[in-house]
Amino acid sequence: MKKVQLNPVGWMSQLSQVEVSRLQDATNSELFAMFRNCCLAVLNSGVDEDNFEALFAPYENFEIKLIRRERGVKIELVNPPEVAFVDEKLVRGVHEHLFAVLRDLLYMGNKYAFLHQTAPAEGNDITDMVFDMLRHAKALEGNDSVNTIVCWGGHSINQVEYKYTKEVGYQLGLRDMNICTGCGPGAMKGPMKGATIGHAKQRHKTGRYIGISEPSIIAAEPPNAIVNELIIMPDIEKRLEAFVRLGHGIIVFPGGVGTAEELLYLLGILMNERNAQQPFPFILTGPAGSEEYFEAIDAFVGATLGPEAQSKYQIIVDDPEEVARTMNKHLEKVKKFRGAMGDAFSFNWSLKIEQDFQQPFIPTHESMADLQLHLDQSKSDLAANLRKAFSGIVAGNVKAEGIAQIKKHGPFELTGDSTLMEKVDTLLESFVKQHRMKLPGSAYEPCYVVKNDKRNNE
To answer: Which contacts qualify for 200-206: CB closer than 8 Å, 24 or more apart?
Structure first.
């Protein structure tokens, strides 16, 4: 039996005795099982795997314990994965990430008891929670330079697309921009990898590669090895809010249903009239050959949310330098706007996010079937409902609880008016056809069926 004890690092090395006691109390809570799984995912950092069962199966005898010391707590690993070690020493980045998991899941989780809320938090309370978690993670420190670029895109992309994400990251790095992604493989890893080279050439020694995940995603998509700041938000909605309030601009690479969810989330926010004056650089980009993906996305947005939504983003194909130059130019507008508004450069307080985009959506067969999927509603409401539908498909594809539901009850059913459902089905089929639902080599079985609601068509 292999045992390894780890001294606390970062902010977690300065805890009061009361805080240590609360952490130890958490070892008997529901949170601890999630903490164990997230730590196991972190220990598999760099492993390209989107099947949680395949990832966890070899490590049934893995345990994690908290050992109390006068100055704080140590983490003890029992039978950890060998991939996390070099010459019997734990990789430093993995060591740091384990204490990031401890901070976000147990310390902050205890503070907010986000898994045990009996009543939904109000919008301002949710934003304050997002701010507090980013502040404790020290993500806001050094974010005043208005140079943090959020990169969204799929974990399942081909090598041409992956190479392109690296080239865009390289061009951003040459311009001293930092990268924030969902921290997994594919389009989440490529921009970080490219930026490290750009930063090195510019002797930019404080490059930031921020990975923002959430418990059920990180267990299926371990952090890539380049992430040097790991943050785990309690759910997908707070994760998305962290992206848009921390980032100064967003780049979307080719992806699947999760990327479509992110895009719909941002479009729903930017279409709010209270955000009409908010400069928010938003670029969709990919290499030559990815036109089919962007045509499908753009056609879907135009047919559902309309030309106004299409005007919120710019599509640039096969030109990494132009992507970086365009982003750099628009960041100046962001800086001027924040200054004029008296808003913080490190956290976008002035962005209005309606509660429908903040409240957690828990995908079940009932909640998925009850979604209002029809065109006779406001564009913002439609974006919110479509976002939830795609979020449910992500859960059915890669999240442990979603996969378990599909195995037990069969596919989720999405029901709505025929016009909208035809467009949803066409978009999802394009993702399947382009192999964007699962990692290459994995057969994809849809976790959803699309149906017409005859009542909405009468």
So the answer is: 201/173, 201/174, 202/173, 202/174, 202/176, 204/173, 204/176, 206/142
Indicate whether 114 pLDDT > 50.
no
Q: What span, in angstroms and rounded, lies between the C-alpha atoms of 103 and 90?
A: 19
**d(C-alpha 253, C-alpha 259), whole Å:** 8
User: Could you give the angle at which helices 31-43 and 92-101 cross, rounded to 10 degrees?
Assistant: 160
pTM of the model: 0.92
Segment 218-239 mean pLDDT: 90
Cβ-count burial of 259 within 10 angstroms (0-12 exposed, 13-18 middle, 19+ buried)? Answer: buried
Q: Which residues contact 18 (CB under 8 A, 6 or more apart)?
A: none
- What is the chain's length? 458
Q: How many CB atoms lie within 10 A of CB 156?
A: 27
Burial of 7 (C-beta count, 10 Å sphere; 0-12/13-18/19+): middle
The mean pLDDT of 52-79, rounded to a whole number, is 84
In whole angstroms, give the CA distance from residue 123 to residue 245. Answer: 14
- Alpha carbons 85 and 53: distance in angstroms, whole number: 22
What are the start-end ranges of the H helices in 228-347? 236-246, 257-270, 291-304, 307-310, 320-341
Identify the helix (H) or strand (E) that includes residue 152: strand 148-152
Rg over CA atoms, the chain: 21
CB 448, CB 423: distance < 8 Å = no
Cβ 305 vs Cβ 223: under 8 Å: no
pLDDT at 329 over 70: yes
Strand order in the sheet with 209-213: 229-232, 209-213, 178-181, 148-152, 249-252, 282-286, 314-317
User: Between the CA of residue 220 and those of 201, 250, 436, what are the distances in Å?
Assistant: 34, 24, 16
- What's residue 135's pLDDT? 95
- Residue 278, token pair as written in the block: 């908010």
CB 363 within 8 A of CB 385: no
C-alpha to C-alpha distances, 202 to 195, 198, 205, 207, 286, nearest whole angstrom = 10, 6, 9, 11, 25
Q: Which residues of 428-454 are buried (b: 16+ CB within 10 A; e: fewer)?
A: bebbeebbbbbbeeeeeebbbebebbe
CA–CA dist 77, 230 (Å, integer): 19
Our separate counts of H helices and E strands in the chain read 19, 14
